[in-house]
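Example 9 (inverse folding). The structure is encoded as follows.
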């Protein structure tokens, strides 16, 4: 309880009772938070009336932009007509239609949609499906998972266990004896003089060595984001994702593409696995852009092949005993339907493909700044790495500089997402070329000013 003496403004700013994700618990009540009040298009407005470009698009999720009337209306209508149904025993037409629509835009035979409450629970469900699948197939030992250093897959026990960000594991317990990590395919980390092709060969050789070391008969799945998002926007060398997939196929290992960030337009396609990287995974996880962050929802897409494999093992029912009270929630489903309508009506995927080269050029224009040592861009996601001390390994580097950039940029009208030593940008996909110019010029000013101390 508060003692009642705080002003509303004080409570807003210091947030005594809201334990934020990743918050330092020692400083609860002491931090000075930016408190947002309204949002529209690519902008958010704080309680002091400052209008800021939403550079990170919320948390990579506000894909169609803020304040879309179509979504507000669809959600309002749905909540008035049917606010809930029990998904384990019933269906709702809006959720059924959404599942059909997602299957229609998904790659290959990924025709089975299992709805979740967000990205972590989609990843959790994918991993549980791997266990279920191999149990049904009579291979109870084939359940180990291969994941990657600096990959991020969520904050449930299982999804965090396959996440490879060392700093996030501090003071946390992870599921033991389940996950084997291979290194991140971050080109900047390659040995001096090594070509990108040779670097890619190295990563593939490492993955195969790991498979052989653990034993393919023990490994259930490999999980990877097409582009590592929270790992700092890591764009792998050409052919990497496809070759990982081929290796998994060769060794009968399921391939899970975590597209929580890269789906729904971030790379100019509904799903990047097939259209950008030429891969039809066994499972895809999605969330964020599915509802553009207006309401929580995620989904796990499962291939027909896996369902058929299971049904061929027995004529007995094989219940996937997993699910959530809010699986396929009708209001979230109506939100997702209206969101996809916007993609179609506004030709949003085409728009992203059109502005992406401009966005990349704008980001690359920052390369003349001495602090900027690596620029990683694909579609409408970018990581601008700022090197302060070249000898500090990534894992140990804190966000001191990029937090400073964010603070300065906020004063100048732009939100930045600091991840380690990278300023990460993933704006609403509706962003225009003049807005990209504005965003990058503020980011430039922020980096220059932060470097002055
Ligand atoms: N997978 C990836 C690739 C993500 O980036 C995230 C969230 N940033 C998640 C999973 C977890 O999603 P959520 O926060 O919705 O649980």
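The amino acid assigned to each position is listed next.
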């Amino acid at each position: 309880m508060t003692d009642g003496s705080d002003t509303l403004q004080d409570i807003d700013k210091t947030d005594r009772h809201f334990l934020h994700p990743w918050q330092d618990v020692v400083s609860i009540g002491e931090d000075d938070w930016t408190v947002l009040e309204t949002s529209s298009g690519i902008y958010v407005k704080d309680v002091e009336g400052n209008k800021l470009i939403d550079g990170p698009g919320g948390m990579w999720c506000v894909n169609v932009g803020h304040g879309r009337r179509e979504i507000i209306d669809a959600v309002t209508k749905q909540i008035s007509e049917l606010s809930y149904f029990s998904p384990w025993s019933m269906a709702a037409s809006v959720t059924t239609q959404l599942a059909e629509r997602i299957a229609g835009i998904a790659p290959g035979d990924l025709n089975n949609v299992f709805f979740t409450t967000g990205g972590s629970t989609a990843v959790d469900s994918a991993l549980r499906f791997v266990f279920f699948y191999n149990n049904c197939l009579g291979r109870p030992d084939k359940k180990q998972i291969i994941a990657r250093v600096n990959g991020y897959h969520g904050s449930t026990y299982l999804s965090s266990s396959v996440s490879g960000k060392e700093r996030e594991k501090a003071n946390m317990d992870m599921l033991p004896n389940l996950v084997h990590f291979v290194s991140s395919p971050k080109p900047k980390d390659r040995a001096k003089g090594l070509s990108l092709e040779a670097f890619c060969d190295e990563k593939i050789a490492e993955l195969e060595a790991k498979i052989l070391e653990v034993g393919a008969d023990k490994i259930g799945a490999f999980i990877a984001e097409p582009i590592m998002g929270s790992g700092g926007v890591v764009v792998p060398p050409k052919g990497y994702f496809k070759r990982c997939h081929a290796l998994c196929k060769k060794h009968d290992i399921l391939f899970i593409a975590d597209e929580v960030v890269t789906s729904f337009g971030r790379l100019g396609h509904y799903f990047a696995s097939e259209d950008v990287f030429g891969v039809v995974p066994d499972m895809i996880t999605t969330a964020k852009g599915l509802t553009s962050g207006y309401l929580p929802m995620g989904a796990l897409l499962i291939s027909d092949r896996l369902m058929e494999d299971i049904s061929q093992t027995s004529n007995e029912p094989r219940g996937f005993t997993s699910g959530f009270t809010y699986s396929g929630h009708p209001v979230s489903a109506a939100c997702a339907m209206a969101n996809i309508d916007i993609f179609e009506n506004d030709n949003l995927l085409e728009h992203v493909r059109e502005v992406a080269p401009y966005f990349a050029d704008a980001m690359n224009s920052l390369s003349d700044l001495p602090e900027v040592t690596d620029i990683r861009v694909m579609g409408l996601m970018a990581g601008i790495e700022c090197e302060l001390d070249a000898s500090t390994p990534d894992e140990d580097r804190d966000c001191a500089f990029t937090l400073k950039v964010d603070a300065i940029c906020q004063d100048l009208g732009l939100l930045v997402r600091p991840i380690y030593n990278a300023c990460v940008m993933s704006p609403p996909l509706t962003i225009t070329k003049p807005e990209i110019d504005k965003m990058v010029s503020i980011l430039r000013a922020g980096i220059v000013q932060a470097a002055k101390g």
